[in-house]
From TrEMBL:
It comes from the Bacteria. The gene is radA. One of its GO terms (biological process) is recombinational repair. This is DNA repair protein RadA. NCBIfam families: sms (TIGR00416).
Amino acid sequence: MVSQVGGTVVDMSSTARAQRPVHRCTECGWSTAKWVGRCGECQAWGTVVEAGAAPAGPRTAVSAPLRSPAQPIAEVDAEEARFRPTGVGEFDRVLGGGIVPGAVVLLAGEPGVGKSTLLLDVAARAAEGGSKVLYVTGEESASQVRLRAERIGAIRPGLLLAAETDLGTVLGHIEANDPDLLVIDSVQTIASAQVDGSAGGVSQVREVAAALIAVAKRTATPVVLVGHVTKDGSIAGPRVLEHLVDVVCQFEGDKHSELRMVRAVKNRYGTTDEVGCFSLTETGIHSLADPSGLFLSGKRDPVPGTCVTVTLDGRRPMPTEIQALTNRTVMPNARRTTAGVDSSRVLMTLAVLGSRAGIDTAGMDIYVSTVGGARALEPATDLAIALAVVSARQDFELVDGLVAIGEVGLAGDLRPAVGTRRRLSEVARLGFSRAIIPAATDLEGAMPDGIDVVRAEDLHQAITAAQFGVRRRPIRLA
């Protein structure tokens, strides 16, 4: 529709379209003309809000004056981005050597895994080194945190504690104390009075994170945020939170085990291949610089149905013992039970043993497990699983000090694993004397000292090498 107003021709339809309100997704920015309950782009629920009239053109103009002029990259001071050790070696390993001034680290994990205990220990170590640390808790009272600090030995004069849930009050504490390290436990419990919605909502989490990140960059204060996770293990809150922070760490661990692992999902200052290992006990959380013996049973004499392999968790080799048990069953459907290993790969390995190696497992219940709650999910553990099952099925002991590394193909062939040399160096350090690896493995240099490496092209050769020189157990009658 076109009309003439004061001698000017105005397109009323285009003006109406320009002034029509637009609804945008707070997660991904997708826009729509009317409100919908679910975003059509990222499929998130409840994130589409009214964003006002659609802009007819750019709304941002040049701001003046510039706070800092652009300068040649060679003249930029790099000392401001140097790593500062926190005093917790395994946490520094994951961060890349320490925490960078002005960096914002997000530590996420399931409830009860030990996030607060770890960060309280990090805060105490930093305070012990002479830094002023501000620990803000929104989930517990100050007295509850004090009791935990006494239990783990984290009472330090330089560790300041505040129990607050209001963002404005938290910013006031930061301005009044000027800390060298700030810990927020957790970002989902802090809320701003200037933003609608309850604490933990999308708008609140975005506002809290943006305010804390702005403070961190302006004052060069490193900030560590604790984040909750959802049922599927992802970080709760808007997805943009992971993009805004500098480092995202995932804290993992089984509640029935003392072992805890921290791995970096995102790291702007280092690699994401490192894994930090901790032991969570009643007296606190302790770094495990050498966790190699955690997943070995400790038996010195060979036992049928056991074989050791080496998994790579990030860049860290983890020797893991695989145990297998076979038992004759009268049930029409034999049971296949696994713990700590990939059940689908176990089933494929059993099929290859029956078809390519003549090891019949039909009519037998088979149980395959790892020791110490380890997770051996990578294909490099196939050969160890196969040898453990064969050893249990035939009731013989493998060669003493044997390690098996390799992927088993459906044709019965063996395929090389990534980082085999690093794995062999670790087991040689632990005293293992024999290793079976795929023939096509390229070790890129001399063999590690103290270990005899046997190359096998298929399962037949691997089983023969594993039985070489062993003694069979005598049959025990009931």
